[in-house]
Amino acid sequence: MQVEGRYGVCMSQNPPGPRGYPILGMLPDLRADPVRTFLDAADRYGDVVHLKAGPYDGFLISDPADIKHVLQDNARNYHKSPLYDRLRDSLGNGLLTSEDAFWLRQRRLAQPAFHRQRLVTMADAMVACAEQALERWDQIAASGEPIDLVEEMMALTQAIIVRTMFSTDLGATAEIVNRTWPIINRRIGETFWATKVETALPLPANVRFRRALGELETVVYRIIAERRRSGRDEADLLSMFLSARDEETGAGMTDHQLRNEVMTMLLAGHETTSLALSWTYFLLSQHPRVEQDIADEVDRVIGAERASFAHLDRLTRTRQAIEESLRIYPPAWGVSRRALDDDEIGGYPLRKGSLVFVIPFVVHRRPKLWPDPDRFDPDRFTPEHEAARHRFAYIPFGGGPRGCIGNQFAMVEAQLIVAAVAQRYRVALLPDQHVRPEPLITLRPKPGIRAKLEKRSPRANGHV
Ligand code: HEM
User: Which protein residues are within 6 Å of ligand 1, measured from CB?
Assistant: First the structure.
């Protein structure tokens, strides 16, 4: 076996993998460009790769059966990895970061907020928010100015999550969320691999982060305080959490616990969907045939009516394009776990305490699962193709018990937004933009996406 610098193969009981630097292993590469590092490792070494990253020993896995084993079949043997500690610093012990009995209790409390019947009602609120945004867009379009697509989508999905989950709107405080969340997101992304010491030092970046977090918390505590004061039961997520009582003590959730859950939902519930939409427009702009198919479909199915939940079943092409965009640019580009006990993955022993990296960005590009993986092709999501594929070959929403609680919500939201926009506008990207994915907590388009709004006139239903 040839040894080529830090890519020399490391032979042991471990699966193959890059040797990396002494002590640090692949940490410098993972810090510099995690997506590239994971992608290269899977391309080079296959479905199970041994990766040492500083103090951590880990497996990068990309075979669907192994992924199912970790995320679903043997999920009890895994907790979220220490990489989620940075997320815990800001979101606290909420649904995304908590474990075991506490997590299960919270998940059960939250679940009814996402039931199908509620989705039908929430779809109306989503369209109402989209219409409000479109009214503002009308003015921008009239001025001929371009929009910052990511910012626009962020503002829209944020309005939707606040209205559907907390039955309020942020009003003037939306500005605080828009300003502080990117600072927090960036710092968490930058410090994923950092030690606790590095994040505790009074560095300017840490000070900025703490200040931003404090400001964001005031918005969250205000939402909680207003609801406690009004005592209204809105049958929304916030009411579900507020009315929960501990079975033994009868105590309700404290403000701090509520803050963690509200913060989690606010952030997990808008950032990812807005990026899914931004990437979808980015891809559509390079595939005018699909873009036209969607416009035609929206004309045919919705025409000049108001978009609603009832239309969704027939917005097939729209859904397929969004799903394909989630394959190529999965906003939650990587998840990871820590083994609580020894396990075996792909025939290799995995020791207790090791990390497992499940990277949708990588899995979605494995040529054996996705032929010609870089090609944008919504036909991959026809029922025949879907039936022929392993469920865990496509994991933009993760999977198993810790899979995304907002999966359906996000798909309904994304379809309705694309449809409502298509009724009025073609989103035309400005030429000569060099956009690339930046892996922070989420996969962001860097430096952003600028677009012009071109007016469309929907044709009446059935006359395409
Ligand atoms: C396109 C949009 C979305 C994507 C790509 C996405 C992706 C994911 C992924 C991959 C996970 C699993 C994380 C892990 O295994 O460590 C997850 C969990 C979660 N997501 Fe989403 N998500 C999206 C939208 C939403 C929405 C709209 C909400 C809320 C309304 C939401 C709330 C959550 C929560 C609370 C969890 C943690 C669930 C648990 O552990 O019980 N997400 N999401």
Answer: 80, 95-96, 107, 161, 264-265, 268-269, 272-273, 276, 331-332, 335, 396-398, 402-406, 409-410
